[in-house]
Amino acid sequence: MSDRLKNNQRNKEVVWDYWQKLNHVGLDNVLDVINAAMHQDVNWNGSEPINQIVGAEAVFTNYMRPLMLAFPDLKWRPYVFLGGTDSEGDEWVSGCGYLTGTFAQDWLGIPASNDKTNIGFGQFYVMREGKIAESYVILDVLGVMRQAGFQILPPSRGMEGGKIPGPLAGDGILLTEQDELESRKSAQLTRIAMNGLGRYVRSRDGGDMSRMEHENYWHPQMHWYGYTGIGATFSQEEFEDFHQRPWLHGFGDRKVSLPGGRYMGFVGEGLYSAGGIWDVPFSINHGDYLGFPATKKMMTIRDFDWWKREGDYLIENWIPIDLIDIFKQMGVDIFDLLRHQVEQRKRGIQWFNIAG
Which value, to the nearest 10 degrees, does the dihedral of the CA atoms of residues 326, 331, 332, 334 take? Predict the structure, then answer.
């Protein structure tokens, strides 16, 4: 085994051990687990409204402790897990799945439901010297709101619920060394497919997405798993109609980009690949999206992907997007809308009774 593969296996062991310990230790011991896995000056980044936290102790105080107080029996349940070294030499470990626990105390202003709740998560780590140096996580906070009984956004075009499905084959946890040739195939197909997305030009193509040539890269029965607000789709046709067409209407200037943000983890391992961007400029908001008007301003995005390859096609894709951050840039305060619904509920009015 090459040194690169050895490092990758060691890095995955560190992260996997970290998650398993979080599943079994009590809150009083969580800080010790964090200190063992992370550099003391770790650059930790969470989705809106958590955002950046610097330092292992601050991660415990400002993120992990409030989360575990709200969900005291919280468990990490990943269904895709892989690692690799990107073209810049950064060593990554990433995974996606869901957190599950009883919603016992209010969290982020969301009233506790006292019911079992599933929180979709996507996570990327940069590993240095065998410990976590950078961390990026997107949580499906809108999904928690919905499970607590609050419909903040219009119902998704795609299917949505409390738990996003994992790989159909159940083979997404890559704890062992993977075939290097298969890993290269997965990474290469992903890059080609992503280049295809870049061939779309809004001013030229409008609603015609044929230049992206999805049929060359995506299986006809592809499964695309989005978070609450977008939902899941189960064919190329559903993907285009339920997600891509509305998305391009709002954010279709894909060729527009500026320096900034963090590109992360574009790696392949076995039949899986992963990649993400964090606060990267990606499009002018030229059209309305999910009923909210356009700003005509440059937008940044927090967007992760995990892909599963089947032969010469991509068959499954998990894609957390920080929609709350997107809407914040559009001048829409999701948490203010939540507070309004909370007050309405206190008066006996549910979201589905609210007109206008």
Answer: 70
- pLDDT tens digits, 243-270: 999 999 999 987 656 788 999 879 999 9
Q: For residues 110 and 17, state if they share a domain.
A: yes
Same domain (yes/no): 133, 202:
no
d(CA 332, CA 326): 9
Give pTM, 2 decimals. 0.95
Note whether 185 and 301 are same-domain residues.
Answer: yes
Range of the domain at 205: 180-337
> For the chain, what's the residue count?
356
Handedness of CA 335, 340, 341, 347 (dihedral sign): positive
Looking at the domain assignment, is residue 168 inside a domain? no
Tens digit of each residue's pLDDT (9 = 90 or more) over 62-120? 999 999 999 999 999 999 999 999 999 999 999 999 999 999 999 999 999 999 999 99
The pair of structure tokens assigned to 29 is 């011991």
Pick from 175, 138, 129: which is nearest to 270 by CA? 175
Is 167 inside a domain boundary? no
Domain identity same for 16 and 75 = yes
* CATH code (residue 42): 3.10.450.50
